[in-house]
Write a structure and sequence with these properties.
Helix content: 25-40%
Radius of gyration: 17 Å
Oligomer: single chain
Order of helices and strands: HEHEHEHEEEEEHHEH
CATH architecture: Alpha-Beta Complex
Structural class: alpha/beta
CATH superfamily: Spore Coat Polysaccharide Biosynthesis Protein SpsA, Chain A
Largest sheet: 5 strands, mixed
CATH topology: Spore Coat Polysaccharide Biosynthesis Protein SpsA, Chain A
Amino acid sequence: MARLLASGVVGSVVAVVPSGLLADARKLLGPDIDVVAGAATRTGSVACGLAVLPSPVCSVLVHDAARCLVPPELVRRVVDALARYPAVVPGLPLPDTVKEVDHRCAVVRTPDRAALRLVQTPQGFARDLLERAHRSPVAATGAATDDAGLVELLGEPVHVVPGDPRALKITTPDDLTHAGWLLGLGA
C-alpha cells in the first residue's frame, strides 16, 4: 500500500482480503484504507472492491499484494497512460524463448517473443470499462486470469506501458529471496 500511495497519484485504496483476515487487515492498514472481504476468485474479489468505490472515482488501479515492491514511478506510468487509454497494463519483454506445447508436452509452435510481454500490476482502467467487464457473462466463467483479460474478452483494446523488474510477483521461495536481495537484505 505504501508504494502505491507514495506514487502521489493514488487518492484512495480499497484492500480486498479473505473474510477471516478482515480484523487483522483493518488493524494493520489503519483507518485510511478501506478493507473489504473478497470472494473465492480473483475476479470476484475485484468486483467486491469495485462495489465499495465512491462514485466520483473514474479511474481504477487493480494491484496484486504479491507485487509489494512495485516502484512508485511504475504506478505513475500506468496512471499517466490512463489519460490516453481506457485500459493500461505494465509489461516486460520476455528474455527467454517460449514454446507452446500440447497435452503430451510436444512443442506445437514457438511464438515470436518480440510480440510477447510478461504482464504486471497495477493494471489501470476507466472505471466504467472495468465495471462493464465485470458485469459481462465471461467474468463468471473464469476464462480470464486478470482484469485486462476480461477487458480483452469484451473486444476492447488494452495498452501496454513499460513494466519494471522490481514489480516481481512474490509467490515462491526463490521470489522471496530475490525480493530480499532487492531490499538489500540478502546476499
